Amino acid sequence: MPTVLIVEDNLALADAVAEVLRSIGYSTLVAHDGDAALSEVERSRPEVAIVDLELPTIGGLEVARRLREGYGDQMKLIANTAWPDTAETHSKTAEAGFDDVLIKPTSIYQILKAIQHGGTRTTR
Question: Out of 3, 37, 50, 113, which could bridge 31 as a Cys pair, Cβ 3.0 to 4.6 Å?
């Protein structure tokens, strides 16, 4: 199973998602801001990153842009956001390089589906 980086500034939520994913066999990493996410990716090279869009230091859209610039399509990027489920949200996340977008509140089943199957990016 792939290693999953959870990038979320809500510590309890990040830890809960990581714990559930670990309980079913995934290796997990957690970062609580954009800078930490970029450092963790450089250090650990996870196969999947689930990224909140509203993060301290560097926002999730910019994190995705930098990861795509640095690592291309080596990693599946999933946005996890409380932004409204609108065409604008989907367009902004796709343009930043996300493969998929989940709208909070997100169930573990939605997260698993995105990790295992995900969407296909058509916009860069």
Answer: 37
Average pLDDT of the segment spanning 66-90? 96
DSSP H helices, the chain, are 11-23, 34-44, 60-71, 87-96, 108-116
Q: Calculate the alpha carbon distances from 52 to 1, 24, 34, 59, 60 in Å.
A: 22, 22, 9, 8, 6
CATH class of the domain defined by 3-116: alpha beta
Predicted confidence (pLDDT) per residue in 49-63, tens digit: 999 999 999 999 999
Tell if the pTM clears 0.85, that is, is over it. yes
Tokens of 61: 């859209």
For the chain, give every domain's residue range: 3-116
Residue 64, CA distances (Å) to 52, 93, 109 in order? 10, 8, 23
Strand ranges of the sheet holding 27-31, from the earlier edge strand across to the other edge? 27-31, 3-7, 48-52, 76-81, 100-103
Cα(28)–Cα(19) distance, rounded to whole angstroms?
8
